[in-house]
Amino acid sequence: MPLNERDRIEILMMIGVGDRMRTQQEVCRLFHEMHPDREPVSQSTVSRIERKYRELGHVRDAPRQGRPKINENVQQDVILSALENPHCTVRQVSRDLNIGKSSVKYHPYRVRLIHELAEDDFDRRTEFCEYMMDHNNQNNGFIANILFSDEATFFLNGHVNRQNTRYWSQENLHWMQEYHTQHPQKVNVWAGIPEVSISTVGEKKLVTKFLETGSVLDIKKSKKLLNEDYAASVLELHSVREAPKLSLRKRAIETEIKNLNRNTYLGMLQNFLTDKLDELPLSYRTRIFFQQDGCPAHHAVTVRNWLNSEFNEHWIGRDGPILWPPRSPDLTILDFYLWGCLKQIVYREPLENDEEQLKTMIQNAVKSLSMEEIRNSFNESRARIEICAEKGGALFE
Q1: Looking at the structure, do residues 204 and 224 belong to the same domain, yes or no?
Q2: Cα dist. 56→15, 48, 140, 352 in Å?
Q3: If we measure between CA atoms, which residue out of 19, 22, 1 comes closest to residue 11?
Q4: Partner of 202 at 20 to 30 A CA spacing, among 83, 92, 127, 138?
Q5: Is residue 193 part of a domain?
Q6: Terminus-to-terminus CA distance in the chain, angstroms?
Q7: What PANTHER family does this protein's entry cite (predicted)?
């Protein structure tokens, strides 16, 4: 424990003056006898204290270099300001208190958007995690046999993260960024990550597929429905006030054409995934468990029937042999690792209005991922499953 100013003065008194001066060894022994619970002082410490007193006339600490210490009253004012308005910016606090921004010792944490869990989700998540841990303990490497899959959307007209892109101002300047079209062009990407194939084949087997906005048959049917519905509505139109309803109906059908549907997803499974699975070693192919979340396209009867025939009881999903818990993106590798990593790479540079360029950049981003990163993501998945079970299914991020 370092000596304070009072301890140094006490040591000076023990040294004495005139003919009654003690040696440094005697001072050390006397100080230890008076403070047996403290660390003994050394003779060099006693000598340094005596020399400082003779040279400076005091034993106080020298002024410290660097930034001056913040006044305690200012620190209290900062705390009160943060308690009164937790959403206040660092700049505003420093301006109101007339101090530097570095003196505000509070960190401006950002709001993180997460899925809200329903009442039954906690039990479902707990049961799923316990099931996974039990099977992984019984069959070492069970989680490594899972082919995690998911879809993500990459927008062509630039990536604007409103949480990271901001401006400082006293007033709202209504800062905007223009889009190229009314409905932003986008590329839907499906990806699947198996772990065992990485070590078995000796190369990266992260498979990706660009999902089209719908099969030709679906688009033709939807357009026919759109035209028929629009024509029928025009014939029944009696007032101009009904026109907005027609526009909304037309826009709803057009949006349906652009989004992922069951036929597009099933076609991808039958034509693309099957070929990719045939490239895997037979020993792994027979052990693989296919995983998907519970989005409507995945839950279609035709999709589930195909999964039952293709994977038998070896698939995980909504109403599947192994139930995937709803609202659980924190448990799948693609949500907590892959998509964020790929988008960070793709949107590192500004994009041109070129869909093929966007696809090329996504493919290059996939190739840039290392096998070590993918293995680490599986280890992270195991850890997350254990934490989720310990938390009773609650969100843990």
Answers
A1: no
A2: 17, 12, 72, 71
A3: 22
A4: 138
A5: yes
A6: 40
A7: HTH PSQ-TYPE DOMAIN-CONTAINING PROTEIN, TRANSPOSABLE ELEMENT TC3 TRANSPOSASE-LIKE PROTEIN
Domain hosting 30: range is 5-56
CB 184 within 8 A of CB 156: yes
Spatial separation of the C-alpha atoms in residues 361 and 155, rounded to whole Å: 12
371 belongs to a structural domain: yes
CA 234 – CA 70 distance, rounded (Å): 73
Domain end residue (candidates: 227, 258, 289): 258
Mark whether 195 and 339 lie in a shared domain.
Answer: yes
Asked if the structure places residue 380 within a domain, the reply is yes
39-47 mean pLDDT: 88
331-384, pLDDT tens digit by residue? 999 998 999 899 888 888 877 778 888 889 998 998 888 888 888 888 899 999
Q: What is the pLDDT of residue 219?
A: 28
Residue linked to tokens 């899925």: 115
pLDDT value of residue 257: 42
Read off the CATH number of the domain in which 161 is found.
3.30.420.10
Give residue 186's region: left, alpha or beta (phi > 0; psi -120 to 50).
beta
Q: Tell me whether residue 264 is in a domain.
A: no
> Do 252 and 288 fall within a single domain?
no
For the segment 9-38, the average pLDDT, to the nearest whole number, is 86
Percentage of the chain lying above the pLDDT 90 cut: 22
Residues 207 and 314 in one domain: yes
Bridge partner residues of 271 (DSSP): none
**pLDDT category of residue 6 using cuts at 50, 70 and 90:** confident
Say which DSSP state 181 is in: S
> Tell me: the pLDDT tens digits for 150-159?
999 888 765 4
Judgement on whether residues 251 and 342 belong to the same structural domain of the protein: no
**Domain check: are 286 and 142 in the same one?**
yes
Give, for 170, the enclosing helix (H) or strand (E).
none
- Strand runs (DSSP E) across the chain, as ranges? 146-155, 186-193, 207-211, 289-291, 315-317, 322-323
How many structural domains are present in the chain? 4
Count Cβ atoms within 10 A of the Cβ of residue 8 and give its class: 0-12 exposed, 13-18 middle, 19 or more buried.
Answer: buried
- Do 306 and 379 lie in one domain? The reply is yes
Confidence of residue 243 (pLDDT cuts 50, 70, 90): very low
Claim to verify: residue 229 and residue 193 sit in the same structural domain? no
- Gyration radius of the chain over CA positions: 34
